[in-house]
Amino acid sequence: MSLYLTQEFSAWGLTLLLILAACAYAIGLMLLTPLLYGVDRLSLNNEVAGFKFAVIGVFYAVLLAFVVVAVWENFRDTEGTVRNEAKAAVDLHRVASVLPGPVSADIRRDVITYVKDVRGDEWAKMAVGESSDVVTKDLDRLTKTVFAFNPGTTQEMVLYQTVLRLLAQLTDNRNERLDSADGSVPTVLWFVLIAGGLITLGYPAFFGSTNLAAQVLMTASLAILVAIALLLSIVFDLPSPAT
Q1: Helices 187-202 & 11-37, crossing angle to 10 degrees?
Q2: 36-74 burial string, b = 16+ CB within 10 Å, else e?
């Protein structure tokens, strides 16, 4: 579901969608229950309902905080992985420049092609949880070019070992980056978040109040807070290329 939302809507569009959906559900249910049961009847349970609502609110707040912190840490880790991949590519290009023969130009050419295709092709595909076959072929070509080099001196051997280490770093960081494209929050946890949000937003409907305007404002405020918290979970779990 979160993957579909990030594909179909921009960040502002997704924000507006979540807020409108949460407010419509919470306020609509709050306006419906007095018509069915009457304000006087609902107000008799305000004290008990308030205590239970406090428990539900704390439970859902802890759950949301756990998910937001988890996806934020994964987001920061992925940022670090992307930076390490970029640094490995830059270092590989520089080290390859001092290798002898045509292999120097071949490795630098393959590195530049790899970086361009990551930015131009794979970055967009990661937003839908996919990798790029073009980049995979670029990496295979770069690997073959590196393995084809045969060092002849001690200095060339040292440089070649550095090239192999940087190539391994480049490959490992790309794999970690692709692993993060599918998100880190499992489906069952999304179900718990959504179900808990529906229960939390539906609970104000069981309060009876003669001040309808104040109750609508309080319910809308709660709905907006829940929607924004869910938005953070979705955006950090499956960031768009522009995030």
Answers
A1: 40
A2: eeeeeebeeeeeebeeebeeeeeebeebbeebbebbeeb
- DSSP code string of 13-34: HHHHHHHHHHHHHHHHHHHHHH
- Joined together, the tokens standing for residue 89 give 């590519």
For the cut 70, the answer to whether the pLDDT of residue 162 exceeds it is yes
Kindly provide the b/e burial profile for residues 105-124, where b requires at least 16 CB atoms within 10 angstroms of the residue's own CB: ebbbebbebbbebbeebbbe
48-100 pLDDT, tens digit per residue, is 777 778 888 888 888 888 888 888 888 888 889 999 999 999 999 999 999 88
Residue-wise pLDDT for 192-202, tens only, equals 888 888 988 98
User: Could you tell me the two tokens for 114?
Assistant: 């790899």
